[in-house]
């Protein structure tokens, strides 16, 4: 029994020495990966190309010979300390890497860091057969979108037709949902893949909306709960015949915005960023002035378009104006326009009034969208045809358009300027055509994947 134990012990020792020797031999053949671009520790910007380049000698020397392919997986991870890495995306799956000589494999891959990648520490993993090789990088945002907007509790009344003056109608259905032009647009930005920050005031009765928005990808860092205030509300009639709607607003917490609060929020944004505004909150004009002073680009959707709006908002600070045809005509008339013009003529007239404005977009409902943009000395008109779909509810169509347009406009920033505008208009047009096929506000906003499925 003793002899048997000694033999087993000796066998174990010899096996351990053999394994150590074998692994030492393998280890001596290794040259771990080198990230040439970016270098270890360099910033990688969300939405920008990441060029991964490395040279390696595989773990198993027999795996490499000139002209032979080696399977490789490359993953993009969120670093979480010593705990398990959280995979963000796959850069390449089952990639055949071909050796150029009998010793080393060199590989270069250009890949785009996912839009919406939050600042933080990340890792790129290279899985080559059984060997995992990792280098650390960091990710930073390039463009942030700040939506300074309204939040409403939407109460829906489904009726045969929009109620006329003096008429009493029975509603065939009633519903309560989260809404508000600002909140709807923030949801649209998030579903379109943008990193969007919503700055808004919520009543004590609307905490559930704040939670819902956060769950759907909206950054709520700058959202406030007003414990002593009731939230804004919208009373919405929806025609079961045509899908058209009519809305009555109660401002609530949407009327509690201040310039002082805005100054504190805007400290976190700068010249590379965008601010998006509507006309449903207090101090909107002053907030726009403060944002423009900090160098933010301004997308303005002046809805509802109230009389005297030109005296409230600094339209000369607006970068892109998005209006429907009714709003465009009202604005044209406030500016002194007398002629009966429509479509592109309206866009041309409005753009001519404001030297700093880059573009005017006029949505035409089911007919599509027209726009006029200028870049330096060149000007271009756009006309995108509407899609013929079964309309159920138009409530969030315009908000969906705004969110998807700017999200795409930012995403395509490396394209030719006018091609970028065209691509963004087309994507937004498809997105809004999907939104009208569903009932509700936020729930009707499609995802980018759903838009891409129909926009091929």
From TrEMBL:
Annotated substrate binding sites: 152-154, 180-184, 280, 399
Cofactor or coenzyme needed: Mg(2+)
E.C. number: 2.7.1.15
Statement: the UniProt record of this protein carries the keyword Electron transport: no
Cofactor, how bound (note): Requires a divalent cation, most likely magnesium in vivo, as an electrophilic catalyst to aid phosphoryl group transfer. It is the chelate of the metal and the nucleotide that is the actual substrate.
Pathway where it operates: Carbohydrate metabolism; D-ribose degradation; D-ribose 5-phosphate from beta-D-ribopyranose: step 2/2
Residue span(s) of domain Carbohydrate kinase PfkB: 145-447
Active site, per annotation: 399
Gene3D superfamilies noted in UniProt: 3.40.1190.20
Function: Catalyzes the phosphorylation of ribose at O-5 in a reaction requiring ATP and magnesium. The resulting D-ribose-5-phosphate can then be used either for sythesis of nucleotides, histidine, and tryptophan, or as a component of the pentose phosphate pathway.
Protein family according to the UniProt entry: Belongs to the carbohydrate kinase PfkB family. Ribokinase subfamily.
Name of this protein: Ribokinase
Organism: Rhizopus oryzae
């Amino acid at each position: 029994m003793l002899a048997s134990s000694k033999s087993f012990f000796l066998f174990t020792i010899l096996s351990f020495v053999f394994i150590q020797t074998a692994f030492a031999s393998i280890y001596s053949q290794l040259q771990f990966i080198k990230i040439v671009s970016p270098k270890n520790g360099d910033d990688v910007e969300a939405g920008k190309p990441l060029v991964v380049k490395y040279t390696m000698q595989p773990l198993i020397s027999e795996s490499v010979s000139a002209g032979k392919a080696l399977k490789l997986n490359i993953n993009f991870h969120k670093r979480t300390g010593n705990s398990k890495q959280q995979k963000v995306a796959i850069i390449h799956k089952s990639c055949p890497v071909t050796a150029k000589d009998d010793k080393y494999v060199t590989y270069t891959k250009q890949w785009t860091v996912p839009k919406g990648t939050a600042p933080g520490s990340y890792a790129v993993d290279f899985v080559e057969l059984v060997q995992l090789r990792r280098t650390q990088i960091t990710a930073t945002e390039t463009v942030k979108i700040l939506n300074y907007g309204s939040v409403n509790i939407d109460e829906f009344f489904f009726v045969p037709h929009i109620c006329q003056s003096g008429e009493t109608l029975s509603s065939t259905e009633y519903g309560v949902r989260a809404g508000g032009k600002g909140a709807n647009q923030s949801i649209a930005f998030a579903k379109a893949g943008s990193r969007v920050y919503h700055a808004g005031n919520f009543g004590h009765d609307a905490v559930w909306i704040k939670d819902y928005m956060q769950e759907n990808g909206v950054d709520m860092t700058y959202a406030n709960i007003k414990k002593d205030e009731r939230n804004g509300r919208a009373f919405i009639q929806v025609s079961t015949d045509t899908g058209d709607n009519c809305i009555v607003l109660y401002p609530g917490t949407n009327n509690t915005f201040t310039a002082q609060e805005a100054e504190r929020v805007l400290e976190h944004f700068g010249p590379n960023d965008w601010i998006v505004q509507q006309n449903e909150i207090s101090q909107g004009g002053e907030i726009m002035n403060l944002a423009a002073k900090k160098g933010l680009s301004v997308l303005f959707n002046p809805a509802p378009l109230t009389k005297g709006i030109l005296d409230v908002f600094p339209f000369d600070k607006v970068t892109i104006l998005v209006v429907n045809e009714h709003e465009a005509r009202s604005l044209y008339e406030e500016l002194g326009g007398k002629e009966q013009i429509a479509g592109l003529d309206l866009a041309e007239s409005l753009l001519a009034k404001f030297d700093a404005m880059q573009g005017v977009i006029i949505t035409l409902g089911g007919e599509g969208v027209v726009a006029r943009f200028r870049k330096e000395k060149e000007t271009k008109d756009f006309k995108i045809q509407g899609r013929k779909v079964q309309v159920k509810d138009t409530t969030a169509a315009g908000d969906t358009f705004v969110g998807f347009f700017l999200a795409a406009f930012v995403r395509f920033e490396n394209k030719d300027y006018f091609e970028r505008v065209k691509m963004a208009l087309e994507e937004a047009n498809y997105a809004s055509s999907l939104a009208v096929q569903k009932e509700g506000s936020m729930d009707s906003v499609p995802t980018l994947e759903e838009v891409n499925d129909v926009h091929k």
